[in-house]
Design a protein that fits this description.
Number of helices: 14
Shape: globular
Low-confidence stretches: none
Strand content: 5-15%
Strand order of the largest sheet: 3-2-1-4-8-6-9
Mean pLDDT: 92
Distance between the termini: 68 Å
Number of strands: 10
Largest sheet: 7 strands, mixed
Radius of gyration: 19 Å
Helix content: 40-55%
Length: 294
């Protein structure tokens, strides 16, 4: 039986510090290289991202030259959708540009997708110092939960669910939205044993909170699309689940007990993220009231 082609779609914007390592990690896969199609879709990078990517693949596109971006909200989703349109693989893989991978991740995914339709991938955070350890500890609780998102999907399923939402959802919850539609279409989901390594060496406590605050501004379209009463949306945004539930479900509480210092530090950070999120909601509500009174 002929092996299926896997299309790896990477969206980029000013990723010169990461793109080489990401692509090399794809090139070093145990899966036959002739069966891996690498597509990079860039969005107006003004650094060396495109120059570096061009050394590894002929399939490099500049989305601003291909699509009228004034008509879309979700640039990353637009990049990924465009990449899939230009691809020919029967399996699609969506890594971020700041990620590297176990060398057998594609081989394992291909084998699993003989039985399943889409796959989560465990994520290992590579960060600096003790804060990096806290982030990796936190992220380990999210694998294959409603906070996680699929990374591999069969091509036909991608088109059945309509790809990424370009017009209603912005960067942040766009992968939740895509995964939600995948789960509505099929129950055949699984998770690999191979890992993704997410390189967050540039993040510290302050920049992490700023990043989360930025994401918090992007949830409105997602909530409006699925409505607040949607069971999964309520869980994803639930203070209880995000602050406690996801860390104790399915016996994961044992890991908290084994790592008391990391646990305390993680909950301190999560509490700060939650406070910032709630303050952001209050500020947005106040702006709405002010505009209504004008």
């Amino acid at each position: 039986m002929e092996l299926p082609k896997v299309s790896v779609i990477i969206s980029t914007k000013n990723e010169e510090k990461n793109i080489k390592n990401c692509i090399r990690s794809i090139k070093n896969q145990t899966y036959p290289s002739e069966k891996i199609e690498l597509i990079v879709v860039d969005n107006s990078s003004n650094d060396r991202t495109k120059e570096i990517a061009r050394k590894f693949t002929k399939k490099l596109y500049s989305i601003e030259k291909e699509v009228d971006l004034s008509k879309v909200k979700n640039f990353r989703g637009t990049q990924l959708n465009f990449g899939v349109e230009k691809s020919s693989g029967t399996i699609i893989f969506f890594p971020d540009a700041d990620m590297t991978f176990d060398e057998d991740i594609i081989e394992e995914a291909v084998n699993l997708l003989k039985k399943y339709d889409a796959l989560y991938v465990p994520e290992v955070v590579i960060g600096k110092g003790f804060f990096g350890k806290i982030r990796n500890f936190e992220r380990s609780f999210y694998n294959q939960t409603c906070i996680d998102a699929v990374r591999f999907v069969k091509r036909d399923l991608f088109f059945r669910v309509g790809g990424f939402d370009e017009k209603n959802i912005v960067f942040g919850p766009d992968d939740w939205d895509f995964t939600k539609r995948v789960k509505n279409e099929t129950s055949k989901l699984s998770i690999t044993e191979s890992n993704i390594f997410h390189h967050e060496e540039h993040l510290n406590y302050k920049t992490y909170l700023e990043k989360k605050k930025k994401y918090a501004n992007n949830f409105e379209g997602y909530i409006q699309k699925w409505e607040k009463d949607d069971k999964e949306v309520k869980k994803q945004l639930s203070p209880y689940y995000r602050l406690l539930g996801v860390f104790v479900e399915n016996g994961k509480w044992r890991n908290l007990i084994k790592n008391p210092i990391l646990t305390m530090c993680m909950f301190f950070i999560r509490l700060n993220v939650a406070v910032n999120y709630l303050m952001n909601i209050l500020q947005n509500n106040n702006r709405v009231r002010e505009n209504e009174n004008i």
